[in-house]
Amino acid sequence: MLLGALFGSLIGIILGLTGAGGGILAIPALVIGLGWSLTQATPVALLAISAAATVGAVDGLRKGLVRYRAALLMALLGAVFSPLGVYLAHLLPNAVLISLFSAVMILVAIRMAVQVYRKQTSTACDQQPWEHKNCMLNPETGQLRWNLRCSSTLAVIGSLSGLLTGMLGVGGGFLIVPAFQQFSDIRMHGIVATSLMAIALISATAVTGAIHAGAAITATGGVFIAASVGGMLLGRMLSPRIPAKAIQLGFSTVCVGVACYFMGKTWM
Hints:
This protein has helices at 2-18, 21-34, 38-62, 68-91, 94-121, 148-168, 173-183, 188-212, 219-238, 244-267. The chain has 268 residues and is an all-alpha fold.
């Protein structure tokens, strides 16, 4: 149980710092750290992500950072597609799921590394103009301008997040956060807070489906979940004090290392 508390705390801290990374590392923490199978780990990871993300979302709502209508739309579509992901997870062999999970981790690591590089090399001339964004804020009201392009973009993001959440137990924040950065002009603090609310709702739906399919939460899993909530609170406190570059590069390195370990153990 001590290891469960330690790993849960670390996952919560990462989720609080990034709004995206904790979910994708929850499964490796349980599989590698505690020796669980992917099927055992998925519902516990999802419940931990949902609980921790709920704490972060409440904090964001209190501070007025959450774009709650956008989060609800993504969560609604995520709830529709997450049962399909759970169904596919039960059909696919464990080796295939591990391979898909590892591929997702590597893609996330590459995205974060590229993002750091672009921040270092970009100039005002080559940045994407705001008018090209799909979801724009109204400068007078500060609210999103809801139109067909924005609604469709958020619907696609939510659907893909729900599918991957149900199938791989990854939370979906790794997709929501960069998509918001790419397709909206919302500031980063608002993106993280909105992502946490969507993650909380999507993960809760996915874990409900997993438990309905026969998954169980053990005592060690309960400790992991509780510790992740505490870690989230600490991560939200630390986030303004740690450089984003250090967080992103460190997270990318861990993702690549874990993915290589998974692939080597599965196929070699």
